[in-house]
Design goal:
It is built from 12 helices and 10 strands. By secondary structure, the chain is of the alpha/beta class. The chain folds into 2 domains: 133 residues, Periplasmic binding protein-like II (D-Maltodextrin-Binding Protein, domain 2); 107 residues, 3-Layer(aba) Sandwich (D-Maltodextrin-Binding Protein, domain 2). The strands form 2 sheets. Strands 1, 2, 3, 4, 7, 8, 9 and 10 form an 8-stranded mixed β-sheet that branches. β5, α7 and β6 form a beta-alpha-beta unit. α6 packs across α7. The chain starts with a helix and ends in a 10-residue tail after the last strand. Keywords: Signal. InterPro entries: ABC-Tungstate_binding, PBP_domain.
């Protein structure tokens, strides 16, 4: 009889313990974000702090901004952290997204071989693009529908240039891989500054500071209108946290000690330069 009672008590305790373990294991969200946030190391700093603060574990998927937005459309992610404003605005206008909040910015830089055969050093970005095309110098594009690729295409358009073979080459890969290919080919490329600083590949920084190179990141909540698997409460938790004081402080400090400058500038609460 005593053994039976003990067995019953153990079963009850096990049953009581399992719900406590269950939610903790299930509190996991999918973050679709860009390769720049991963390659720079920013996610490694932010995500453990978010989990500690909220109890939500994060499964990051680092792809181009265009691919991340497509994941949101299909309901395959709970929240997005991206940097392709025009594509973001189109996505939000479709009605399946929730809040779109300003998080941070950095900038793009135009890189190339130290010898600079096209003579772009110090030029405006539009003039630099025209000189690269006129010289037929190798330009290595990500070609992956990322935020960086979208900005690069807009820069060619503003420069009045239609890039093409043989000098224009696409990798279809992320920023780190594209930097390596550009270095191997002694070519030019466009990069976000954070990836350039954290993954030096033998390329020189030739054009920076142009207004056309400003690079803004937003967090976008996905809603159940995109699919039943979406967890709006997880999206809200992440959006609230990354625009909150702890995350913004971390963003502002990230990279300062190692590189002598922050890799991103926190912007939450500031006027959004890309509009609502």
């Amino acid at each position: 009889m005593r053994a039976a009672i003990v067995a019953i008590v153990l079963l009850v305790l096990a049953a009581c313990g399992s719900p406590a373990a269950g939610p903790s294991a299930e509190r996991s969200l999918v973050l679709a974000t860009t390769t720049s946030t991963q390659d720079s190391g920013l996610l490694d700093d932010l995500l453990p702090a978010f989990t500690a603060a909220t109890g939500w574990a994060v499964k990051p998927v680092a792809v181009g901004s265009g691919q991340a937005i497509e994941m949101g459309r299909r309901g395959e992610a709970d929240v997005l952290l991206v940097h392709s404003p025009a594509a973001e605005e189109d996505y939000v206008a479709e009605g399946t997204a929730g809040r779109r909040l300003l998080v941070m910015h950095n900038d793009f830089v135009l890189l190339g071989p130290e010898a600079d055969p096209a003579g772009v050093r110090g030029a405006t970005v539009s003039e630099a693009m025209r000189r690269i095309a006129a010289a037929g110098a190798v330009f290595v594009s990500r070609g992956d529908d990322s935020g960086t690729h979208a900005r690069e295409k807009s820069l060619w358009e503003k420069a009045g240039v239609a890039p093409g073979a043989p000098w224009y080459q696409e990798t279809g890969q992320g920023m780190g891989a594209t930097l390596r290919v550009a270095a191997e080919k002694a070519g030019y490329t466009l990069s976000d500054r954070s990836t350039y600083l954290t993954q030096p590949g033998g390329l020189a920084l030739l054009v920076e500071g142009d207004p056309g190179l400003f690079n803004v990141y937003h967090v976008i909540e996905v809603t159940k209108r995109a699919g039943e698997r979406v967890q709006p409460e997880a999206a809200a938790a992440f959006a609230d946290w990354i625009t909150g004081p702890d995350a913004q402080r971390r963003i502002g400090e990230f990279g300062r000690e190692e590189y002598g400058q922050p890799l991103f500038v926190p912007d939450a609460g500031e006027p959004d330069p890309t509009g609502p």
